[in-house]
Amino acid sequence: LHMGKTMKEDLTVVVKYIKQLYPPEFNVFSTYAELYHNYFASQAKKNAESHLEDKDIYLLLSWVHNIYPKDMRKDHVLAEELEKVKLGSLLPSSLSKELEKKYLDSEEATIKSSLSKCLDKEIQRWKEDKEPEKLNGHFQSELLAIFVIQSMYSGQKRAKDISAAVGEELSRRLWQELPAFLKSYKDAFEDFKEKSKKHRYYKPILIANINNCWNFR
User: Fold this and answer.
1) Nearby residues of 216 by Cβ (< 8 Å), 6 or more positions away
2) How many C-beta neighbours within 10 Å does residue 207 have?
3) Where are the alpha helices (DSSP H) in the chain?
4) 56-60, 72-76, 97-101, 102-106: lowest mean pLDDT where?
5) How far, in whole angstroms, is CA 156 from its chain's centroid?
6) How crowded is residue 195: how many other Cβ atoms within 10 Å of its Cβ?
7) What's the pLDDT tens digit per position in 15-70?
8) How confident is the prediction for the chain on average, in pLDDT?
9) The model's pTM
10) How far apart are CA 125 and CA 111, in angstroms?
11) Alpha-carbon gap, residue 10 to 170, rounded angstroms
12) How far apart are CA 171 and CA 192, in angstroms?
């Protein structure tokens, strides 16, 4: 963040005040831009090759795909001059792809784990001597559907904020996870239907879960 801010502020000074003090053939702005970019890229590469936590991988990918090319290089003061310099990406493509895979693997595993825990809690609620909540006068096991949908939507949005391609890949992975989750949910529900017919709130729980199907659809 400090490097990005420094580069943006300094290049703005070069455009506004320094460039015109030199003859055009000196390419003063290009020289400054390339030196800043090369240093920034070397630091990004160094960080990418070290051990990074998930949040650091996300931040670094955000810089590579989003913040650096869009917020910095498309800045209204710098865009025209930077267009002439043709700077590359902050990271080599191979390293960027490697980080993307780590991020996608981690995000997929995190969402899968949270869905599984949510289903376990839902199954536990069925066993309690408690009537399901009502929403607009109808029994709803609402937490499960809302949590699952929000978890998937939030994951997709985070990935899409890095880049459209990363967002599409996570969406593809999650659409493979969803049927597996729904099958686990269905199997657990069928098991409850068979074994819990004497449950005090058997019928309301059935209705609540049937109403869940509309949310999932």
Assistant:
1) 145, 148, 149, 182
2) 16
3) 2-13, 28-48, 54-62, 79-85, 93-127, 142-162, 164-195, 202-216
4) 72-76
5) 6
6) 9
7) 999 999 999 999 999 999 999 999 999 999 999 999 999 999 999 999 999 999 98
8) 91
9) 0.83
10) 21
11) 37
12) 31
The token duo for 179 is 């049927």
Task: Single out the residue of 175, 174, 180, 182 nearest to residue 212, CA to CA.
Answer: 182
Q: What is the pLDDT of residue 143?
A: 67
Instruction: For the chain, state the CA radius of gyration.
Output: 26
Please answer whether residues 8 and 72 qualify as being in contact, where contact means their C-beta atoms are separated by less than 8 angstroms: yes
Alpha carbons 142 and 213: distance in angstroms, whole number: 10
The predicted model gives 183-211 an average pLDDT of 92
What is the C-alpha to C-alpha distance for residues 29 and 10, in angstroms, rounded to an integer?
A: 10
Q: How far apart are CA 79 and CA 85, in angstroms?
A: 10
Burial level of 133, CB count in 10 A (0-12/13-18/19+)?
A: middle
In order, the DSSP letters of 66-84 are: IIIIIIITT-TTTHHHHHH
**Structure token digits, residue 79:** 């865009």
Angle at 68 between CA 66 and CA 74, to 5 degrees: 95
> 40, 61, 214, 202: which is closest to 132 by C-alpha?
202
- Residue 152, Ramachandran bin (φ over 0: left; ψ between -120 and 50: alpha; else beta): alpha
For 172-189, b/e burial (b = at least 16 CB within 10 A) is ebbeebeeebeeebeebb
